[in-house]
Amino acid sequence: MDKEKIEQLQIQMQQWLYEVEEYVHHIPPTQLYAAVGVVLFTMILFLIICLFKRTTSNTILLTGLSGSGKTFLFYQLRDGSAHQGTVTSMEPNEDSFILHSEREKKGKTRPVHIVDVPGHSRLRPKLDEFLPQAAGIVFVVDSVEFLPNSRTAAEYLYEILTKATVVKKKIPVLLLCNKVDKITAHTKEFIRKQLEKEIDKLRTSRTAVSEADISNEFTLGVSGEPFGFSQCCNKVIVAEASGLTGEISQLEQFIRENVKT
Ligand SMILES: Nc1nc2c(ncn2[C@@H]2O[C@H](COP(=O)(O)OP(=O)(O)OP(=O)(O)O)[C@@H](O)[C@H]2O)c(=O)[nH]1
Ligand SMILES: [Mg+2]
């Protein structure tokens, strides 16, 4: 009984196959090619979209020395106020959200993934975990207490700018001079020049020491010329902010330029 059913099914299938073949033979070849072309084109387009989606990241990293104001900025971006973050962070602070200033906006706004990496030297290696997915790095500098910390800040910045991921992926970097609400804050131009000078000194001492023991993955700038951020292969720009008063428009602009809606 079962065998009969299977045989019947086989005959039915063969008949269908024959009908399909007949049908295909009746289609003019040009129409057939066009149909195959359309299917192929759609598949390729779909693949490209998938690949493109995977490579456009929405992650922005907040880095910089401890006390520069990263956590304050994080909450300003998310909640529009800096009600938390008065203690030194011991863990990266991360969240995906629509920027507070864009919440009322009509139309599509893409959420951003912001990671605030603590500045404590023991926690800095955490940065490497997030670097591969970064669309941009914000290096926060305390513009008030800048001078006593300029060397340490330059060392950390040097470390970031010479990381293989940053160089190869040309991750844009924003030097964000924070705490400009204080009148004693240094200007962004002053901070940029000081950091360039410090990095220049570091570059000379590091290349002299490290011919054999290369700890940094890439060298910075053009040899024989004083260092300038414009020599970096990735974009390095300078801006100002105050995480306390919520003056963060330049930071938001950097985020929007690098995380497309
Ligand atoms: N005047 C002024 N003070 C600020 C501003 N932003 C932060 N501060 C002060 O700086 C302190 C440190 O800010 P945080 O945001 O906690 O610093 P952080 O960079 O997250 O520090 P770590 O978590 O240790 O890496 C805060 O307690 C504030 O008092 C600012 O824009 N203006
Ligand atoms: Mg913090």
UniProtKB/TrEMBL annotation:
InterPro entries (alphabetical): P-loop_NTPase (IPR027417), Small_GTP-bd (IPR005225), SRP_receptor_beta_su (IPR019009)
Gene Ontology molecular-function annotations: GTP binding
Membrane topology type: Single-pass membrane protein
Pfam families the UniProt entry points to: SRPRB (PF09439)
A biological process from GO: protein targeting to ER
Chief location bin: endoplasmic reticulum
Protein name (database record): Signal recognition particle receptor subunit beta
Organism: Nicotiana tabacum (Common tobacco)
